[in-house]
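Lab channel / #folding
Pinned by the channel admin:
"Please post every new chain as: sequence first, then the structure tokens as a reply. Keep commentary short and put observations after the output so the thread stays searchable."

First post following the new format, from NK:
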Amino acid sequence: MVIYYDYDMLDVFLTDTRQPQLSVDFKCAPGELLALVGPSGAGKSTVLRCIAGLHAASHGVIRSNHKDWFNSSNNVSLTPQQRRVGFVFQNYALFPHLTVAENIQLASPDKTDVMMADTLLSKVRLHGLGQRYPHQLSGGQQQRVALARALARSPEVLLLDEPFSAVDKVTRRKLYLELNSLRRELDMPIILVTHDLDEAAMLADTMVVIHHGHTLQQGTPDQILHQPNTANIAKLVDVRNLFQGNITHEDPVYRLQWHHFSLEIDQDNVARNKHNLDKQTVSWTISPTKVLLHQRLRPSRGEQENPIQCTIVEILTLRGITTVLMKVQDCDDLIIQMDLSEHVAIRNALVTGDTITVSLLASAIHLICN
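Reply from TO:
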């Protein structure tokens, strides 16, 4: 295993001879929140435990602020207590026999610093609850105590291992807002492990997809969810509207042949993938939000751009967003998804069974040529 950590940037390169399939590589800057996503068993929590010193590496280096935390070549291995890491566990791991304040003080270098505990409790909006015990708190309050305890160590990096999974959705949304506000005050790398892609997209500056111990892609949430590097990544992050087609060259432009449609595509996208076009068959995707409805009351911009006729088979509205599943006409039950604002669906009187026309915007078609 090799992990390199620098004060100005958290660089992680991780391999383990005892687990040959383990190979993780990513970077996280101070003030940045990076989300590790991937299926259960992908190795996300193991990465956090390696940084914190809770998992013993077979070999390699972990370095923080130019100081070795672990270096197999010269037998350096600091204990977790000696590493400046704040860790919030999935089950919070609070000591039930200690008060809230005592739980926080226990993590501090000065275990008698009552003022520090009070300051951190105020920071996480739990002022005045220091003398309560964990069982007297709600799940959301326990999560805040765990965060305050992690910050009591004055960490250089903050690790969050699925910290919101044990609370209800209403509390979770409140905690999202609080973390988003708090992180502006924390000039340190923050790494969040989560299996919830919506959570990662909402909170993270950067996402890293891990599968079978390997880093598959690092990028912004938009890049990961709408411009995946491979079809496998697209499936792992549950990309909708993932299809296959063939690239055709109609001099001077390339087009995408999809069933009986010849679709206009962004030529810059083609240029970036020209070295792979000899394969001809490509995967491609388009975000449901970029599927453009031809409005019935007035013409839509882009109406002539890759128009296709569809029959609505399902309509679902949740929190102001209407998801429309449509069967593409004459394409053997091929389904495409469109997401639009609820008021647009109502204004156009969309109902199941309707035949509508949509456009697949060329600039939104993402080719996956590998």
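NK: The mean pLDDT is 86.
TO: also worth noting, The two ends are 28 Å apart (CA to CA).
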